[in-house]
Amino acid sequence: MASETKHLVLVDGSGFIFRAFYAIPAMSSPDGVPVNAVYGFTNMLSRLLKDHEGQPIAVIFDAARKTFRNDIYPDYKAHRPPPPEDLRPQFDLIRKATEAFGVPAIELPGWEADDLLATYARLTVEQGGTCTIISSDKDLMQLVRPGVMLKDPLKQKPIGEAEVEKKFGVSPAQVVDVQALMGDATDNVPGVPGIGPKGAAQLVQEYGSLEAILDAAPSMKKSKRRENLIEYADLARISKQLVLLADQVAVPRPVEELHVHPTEGESLRHWLESMGFGSILQRMGFTRKARHPAAEPSQDNVEEDVASAPQAAFGPYETVMTTEALESWIAAARKAGAVAVDTETTGLNARTAELVGISLATEAGKACYIPLCHEGTLEAPVGQQLDVKAVLETLAPLMKDESVLKIFQNAKYDLTIFRQAGLREIAPVDDTMLLSYVQSAGAHGQGMDELSRRHLGHTPITYDEVTGKGRNRIAFTHVTLERATAYAAEDADVTLRLWQVLRASLPHQQAVALYEEMERPLISVLADMEEVGIGVDAEELRRLSDDFARRMREMESAIYDRAGREFNIGSPKQLGEILFDEMGLPGGKRTKTGAWGTDSSVLDGLAEKGHDLPTRILNWRQLAKLKSTYADALVKLMDTKTHRIHTTFQMAVTTTGRLSSNEPNLQNIPIRTEEGARIRQAFKAAKGRKIVSADYSQIELRLLAHVAQIEPLLEAFRLGQDIHARTASEVFGVPLEGMDALTRRRAKAINFGIIYGISAYGLARQLQVPQSEAKRYIEAYFERYPGILAYMEGVKEEARDQGYVLTPFGRRCYVPEIKAKQAARRSYAERQAINAPLQGGAADIIKKAMVRLAQVLPQSGLQARMMLQVHDELLFDVADEDAEKLAALVQQEMEQAATLDVALSVETGIGQSWSDAH
């Protein structure tokens, strides 16, 4: 091989195009053509040429979607959606970008880019050279060997044999065997059902290859895995053919010709200017003639660039009363390529609210309101409005037009409103609430009014200003059209302007992956789950309510006996008088109103000191809450049409990224109490169906081991040991064999307490031991695991320096009180900072799993629906005959949702009720 081609750089062009498209906000050339992916690709290529000056470089593209693999397995990649409309015109421009820089662009019909990369890598090594493939695609990791490595183009991180083995658990040469066993839902590679990455790696480690595994399967211990290996052996072999890259392709150009050809400078500058890529021109030393207003956003501070531009006036806006006017706005939306949409309704519950009107905005200051069900007043009656059904039919083609982006603030609410009204196909969708949330969770609220004040310097008209307050409030249907238009159209206008700011700032906050891979696709996933709901047994709930009422009456009698008289147990004032004035219990503190404090922390403290009455009050309160919040409320909240409970998931409330739910809140049902189990017993599947529960096991502890790199914990998880027993053995010096339950319970309390930044006082209360003893436990724990203490101190310092902490997946969790002067508030913020990366990381993982499952379930052929998420648990409704298959599929997908230094573990259960399955 010639000396000048000793090191070949190959760019996975097709793989990079999609990453660039989703990583960079929408932008267009001076001619109005979308160019965000072109910009990202050009930026990468110009830097690559600088870093590898004088070395041979080639960009490899896919020539077509159909390849020889489709002949082997027709369903291969069959369900992949077509590329987004905004991306399609950019494919050709990216090839022209490659030509403009004088870099060879290689493609070959019938073959994937990966096959060409594999062949060029082989040829390079055989000729005595080395090769770097610019890609992070896991499918290319099988090519890594001496002389061949990968490099992530965004993270600039080399991927060698050690990194591949860390990801897959096997050598690069064995990656195809692991992939053949586990399959790949994204590409429709079937694999062997029930075998995930961990199981596949273990099998390959033990037997060496796929064929050896399949040969050994009949002699394996009887199990479902053994049966599947035998039954699906042929599919596994087909899967290996699909994932094994072909490295004997007759490449269109030999390695020796893959040279960068010097380009004429004026020609390259002309091309960059035609795209409007000013920052690249400047970086490459060209002088730029002029900046077109539609060209790239400032890459130094996109948000400032957008927000500092002169703002159009907020109004006046148009009231749409004719079909012709509506069609004119639809035409404007198509021309703009993006439209902000907002709905006005009769209530906040999207399942029960009715549509009153729709507002659209196509550019800043250009918005309208389409009234549909306004009644007006006697003084100001409303004239003839457009028919609701006719308007929705007219809007439907626009709403499902893939070339027009629909922008919402809290999209899930509006999408549900439209679904209820009969308009179901709405895509693609952006959500300004979530665009803000992934960049600033915990820093401030995510409501439109607050975001408008913060990012636009504008205070929108409030709902109260339009409808009044209290007794004087009128329904929105009675608001005059003039006022309704000013209010509703402004909401759409503000939403569009917020999108321009927040979309542009997304890559600079390094939040693109969070938004595109988790939050954005989760909108429709959660809307579907809310629509599915979960079945409840109303009679069971009534029996439960009656039983709770009877037990509460018994408790009340005992409470009155201890207190010496009857009083209103639910009255904090009367309870305080009983406890501190009449009984004279110590430790009472008065609130600002002068009444005694009787919250749970006060009662807990008294109960721990052995006082009987506070203990009974706490038990009564818990039962009263369960009765009112669940046993009684669930019956009232049951949908009379579906006979199911349809909770509402809130996507942008918590600091850590966790979902919450309301009407009803199903996140707070006690997990370990008998009463909580009885409430879950009332959630039931219909006849002929089952509930499948899938729950991540000890996910936050696994994340702690991963982020803090605690080797004993990592080892315990890898070996499948009882993590709490292992911790007890490490900390207290007790042998694993024959460990007593009390010692293990103490270790468990520390393990989980550490995640929440537990103090010696808190641990002492939990274990009911002296505070000095609890302090010794924590000190022994940190002495044995110094890495955990270092992690905790480091994350607190990170929060103080930055104001936020990061989850392992890059989510920012802001901690505003981290520098509070008041010690109690500051200490609470420090505990938040310690826990947020772990709880937030767990939230990120289950969101990834939900998105994966929403893609896989429709392709599975199983009669199953995802219906509920509660922290680390997912619930599914499934036909009896598909329950076991679903459990295996869900376990596999959830365990593959993320790659940590310890394997994720999911426990599944099947039952007629939630309690049976849990």
Please tell me about this protein's structure.
It catalyses: DNA(n) + a 2'-deoxyribonucleoside 5'-triphosphate = DNA(n+1) + diphosphate. Keywords: DNA damage, DNA repair, DNA replication, DNA-binding, DNA-directed DNA polymerase, Exonuclease, Hydrolase, Nuclease, Nucleotidyltransferase, Transferase. Residues 676-882 form the DNA-directed DNA polymerase family A palm domain. There is one protein chain. The chain has 918 residues and is an alpha/beta fold. Among the domains are: 3-168 and 241-257, 5'-nuclease (Rossmann fold, 3-Layer(aba) Sandwich); 318-509, Nucleotidyltransferase, domain 5; 537-637, Taq DNA Polymerase, Chain T, domain 4 (Up-down Bundle), CATH 1.20.1060.10; 711-784, no CATH class. It contains 37 helices and 22 strands. The strands form six sheets. Strands 3-2-1-4-5-6 form a six-stranded mixed beta sheet. The protein has a six-stranded mixed beta sheet with strand order 7-10-9-8-11-12, sandwiched between helices. Strands 20-21-17-22 form a four-stranded antiparallel beta sheet. A hairpin with a 2-residue loop joins strand 9 (355-363) and strand 10 (366-371). Helix 28 (699-708) crosses helix 35 (823-860), helix 33 crosses helix 34 and helix 34 packs across helix 35 (823-860). The radius of gyration is 31 Å and the shape is globular. 43% of the residues are buried.
